[in-house]
Amino acid sequence: MAAQYVHKWCMEFDSGQVNVKDEQRNGQPSMSADPVQDIDVAVQADICVSIAQLELRFTLPRGIICRKVCSRWVPHHLTEEHRTLMGSSLVLLQCYEA
After folding, report:
1. Which among 77, 64, 31, 35 is positioned nearest to 43, based on CA atoms?
2. pLDDT at residue number 51
3. How far from the centroid of its chain's Cα atoms is residue 73's Cα?
4. Cα–Cα distance between 12 and 8 in angstroms, integer?
5. Residue 31 CB coordination number (10 Å)
6. Which DSSP state fits 87?
7. CB neighbours (10 Å) of residue 65?
8. Residue 17: what are its φ and ψ, rounded to 5°?
9. What whole-number distance in Å separates Cα of residue 64 and Cα of residue 41?
10. pTM of this prediction?
11. Of 69, 66, 60, nearest to 29 (Cα)?
């Protein structure tokens, strides 16, 4: 697949195309950073806001809100303190099940 794009770009440059910016095209536009920042501010202002409320307020589909915004709030790496707390929780859960 990548080879097709490289071949296409080479042909375009050979024909005189020197603009490397994407041209306007049909389809769903990508989400700019502004709505993400606006939603982030809204969530920080009201921590109990639901995704449904964000959908209505910003007129964005649920999938975009979850993918683009919520993924920023999920911690990607656990700290040592988090690991310790998880270990303690696991011990308590095992005691409860026993």
Report:
1. 35
2. 85
3. 9
4. 6
5. 15
6. H
7. 19
8. -70, 120
9. 17
10. 0.42
11. 60
Tokens of 32: 């700019």
Whole-angstrom distance between the N-terminal and C-terminal Cα of the chain?
Answer: 54
pLDDT, one tens digit per residue, over 47-83 is 788 888 988 888 888 888 877 676 666 655 667 787 7
The pLDDT value given to residue 73: 64
Token reading at 27:
């389809």
Question: Among 79, 63, 59, which residue's Cα sits nearest to residue 71?
Answer: 63
From 56, 54, 48, 78, select the one nearest 66 (Cα to Cα). Answer: 54
Token pair in block for residue 63: 């999938």
92: enclosing H helix or E strand: helix 80-97
* Alpha helix segments (H runs only) across 2-79: 2-14, 33-45, 51-58, 62-64, 71-73
pLDDT band at 1 (very low <50, low <70, confident <90, very high): low
* Residue 85 pLDDT: 77
The residues, any chain, with a CB within 8 Å of residue 68's CB and separated by 6 or more, are: 31, 36
